[in-house]
């Protein structure tokens, strides 16, 4: 039997984020009291602890901040996908998000490379945000 792909656990708190991804929208919480936009998803503002939040549609754009190339399949599902990159992207709205840069060679990755989100429809409920390099 083929190994199963690790997928996010949906919760009451992160459901709006994943529902947005399903619609190919990168939705993030923004604090109505101090204006902070944050990720990963928490039920409280990570700056002022307010629970007075709204969900915004992020631009889906950002820059590559850090990255690695995986050469060992620590998780069985990834064993035949090696090598692959794991990237940290600084979104235009401020938060950082871990993802992958698709359709790129590792040697082409560099700091501050402009990227944009694309969505990989995994099943009926999960679409994973991935990123691709914006043409210069
Ligand atoms: Zn706040």
TrEMBL record:
ChsH2 rubredoxin-like zinc ribbon domain sequence ranges: 18-54
Family annotation (PROSITE patterns): PROKAR_LIPOPROTEIN
InterPro entries given in the database record: ChsH2_C, ChsH2_Znr, NA-bd_OB-fold, Thioester_dehydratase-like
Domain of life (superkingdom): Bacteria
UniProt domain ChsH2 C-terminal OB-fold: residue ranges: 55-120
Signal peptide: none
SUPFAM superfamilies, alphabetized: Nucleic acid-binding proteins
PANTHER family to which the protein is assigned, alphabetical: BLR3430 PROTEIN
Protein name per its UniProtKB record: DUF35 domain-containing protein
